[in-house]
Design goal:
single chain; 284 residues; two-stranded parallel sheet; binds NADP nicotinamide-adenine-dinucleotide phosphate
């Protein structure tokens, strides 16, 4: 049997009841890590924790008392933090409600930021640690109808870059994982939240919504599995010199390459085509 590479390491994973977080928890547990897991669905989290012999800390990651319990449960040492809990707030920049935009940042950015702040003293004490933040290719480019989500991931990328430079002297590595579409509950959650807007025929943006099913089908046809992303998270935890960014899946790699090589106006055109941004004459 191959040696378990994370034996005696403590890892904290948020959003562990589904998708990438669940796959990550399983792969880290398989390597022997002692896990502390968080998500809101208490029963589901308890079942995952029982399967992986992990400690469940249920609750909303935006709640400071939940985060405090999570860090306390580590018993004074955290080797790995995977900031994964998140969702996508879809809709035009103009019409997403301010409260929904703020909530997007609370979950995807501020909760992750607060956990980084909370584990840093423990990691500095042990002069080691890995922080892996699940961003997205949306952390590199602002897609239409996903502005608030993209903004929250851009913010996470900026903060991670600064922390990477500050934390390095203590032997703490900060990595971003940037997947393209992944087969998880993500798009169902997004769809559920956006239904009111997509279904509103009086919206000035109604022409943007005509092709959402087709766009989603196209994206999902190129989606990768959550297990594939989890394997990348594991490499960020194990690599001697972890990368600053791990782009996952051909679609995400294509976008990142295009951003590097092509004028932004070309990338804009391609994204407008992909998201079926209507022509002026199609607007009412
Ligand atoms: N799927 C994709 O295409 C894709 C692509 C790029 C990046 N990502 C990123 O990957 C991460 C994971 O998403 P996923 O695709 O695995 O989606 P998912 O299947 O919907 O899983 C999201 C997880 O986050 C938890 N969660 C959501 N809000 C929470 C909150 N307020 N407090 C605590 N836990 C919360 C959910 O559990 P509960 O409902 O039980 O709380 C669930 O375990 C996200 O940061 C997402 O932005 C996803």
């Amino acid at each position: 049997m191959a040696p378990r590479r994370l034996e005696n390491r403590t890892a904290l994973v948020t959003g562990a009841t589904a998708g990438i977080g669940l796959a990550t928890a399983r792969i880290l547990a398989g390597e022997g890590a002692k896990l502390l897991l968080n998500a809101r669905r208490e029963g589901l989290l308890a079942a995952v924790a029982a399967e992986l012999r992990a400690v469940p800390v249920p609750g909303d990651v935006t709640d400071p008392s939940v985060r405090a319990r999570l860090v306390e449960a580590c018993g004074g040492r955290v080797d790995i933090l995977v900031n994964n809990a998140g969702y996508g707030e879809a809709g035009p920049v103009e019409t997403v409600k301010e409260a929904d935009g703020r909530r997007q940042f609370e979950v995807n950015f501020f909760a992750a930021a607060a956990l980084m702040q909370a584990v840093m003293p423990l990691m500095r004490k042990s002069r080691s640690g890995r922080i892996v933040n699940i961003s997205s290719v949306a952390g590199r480019f602002g897609y239409p109808l996903f502005g608030w989500y993209c903004a929250s991931k851009h913010a996470l990328e900026g903060l991670s870059d600064s922390l990477r430079l500050e934390a390095r002297p203590w032997g703490i590595h900060v990595s971003l994982v940037e997947p393209g579409p992944v087969e998880t509950e993500f798009f169902d959650v997004t769809r559920g939240r956006a239904e009111g807007q997509i279904g509103d025929p009086s919206s000035p943006y109604a022409p943007f919504f005509r092709h959402v099913d087709e766009i989603e089908r196209e994206m999902m046809s190129r989606a990768v599995t959550a297990e594939r992303v989890a394997r990348v998270v594991l490499s960020a935890c194990l690599a001697r010199r972890p990368r600053d960014r791990y782009v996952v899946a051909p679609m995400a790699k294509g976008t990142v390459l295009a951003l590097r090589l092509l004028p932004r106006s070309w990338v804009d055109k391609a994204a407008s085509r992909q998201f079926r941004v209507p022509r002026p004459e199609e607007l009412r």
